[in-house]
Amino acid sequence: MDRMAVIFEAERTGYSIDQVADRAMTVGELIQFLSDFNEDTLFILSHDNGYTYGSISFDDCKEAAENEDGEWEE
């Protein structure tokens, strides 16, 4: 069997975290969604309606937290 990929369309829908947070998938929702796929399935990001693509590595990940003022800090 050929390799498989799940492709997420990574749309730009805001200029800050607070503009997209209410529509963002939670980690739990993502885990549940991905649990239907084989562990060897590639996770690919699609940008600009498939004009360009990207991938995610551990070096790409960082955390952010919402402070008491409702602002997000990385």
Keywords:
two-stranded antiparallel sheet, 74 residues, three-stranded mixed β-sheet, alpha+beta, 16% helix, globular, 5 strands
Commentary on this structure:
With 74 residues, the chain is of the alpha+beta class. It has helices spanning 17-20, 27-34, and strands at 5-9, 42-47, 52-55, 65-66, 72-73. 16% of the residues lie in helices and 26% in strands. Strand 4 and strand 5 (72-73) form a beta hairpin.
How is the topology of this model organized?
Elements: E1 5-9, H1 17-20, H2 27-34, E2 42-47, E3 52-55, E4 65-66, E5 72-73
Parallel strand pairs: 1-2
Antiparallel strand pairs: 2-3, 4-5
Number of strands: 5
Shape: globular
Please report which band the strand proportion falls in: under 5%, 5-15%, 15-25%, 25-35%, 35-45% or over 45%.
Answer: 25-35%
Sheet having the most strands: 3 strands, mixed
Produce a short descriptive summary.
With 74 residues, the chain is an alpha+beta fold. 16% of the residues lie in helices and 26% in strands.
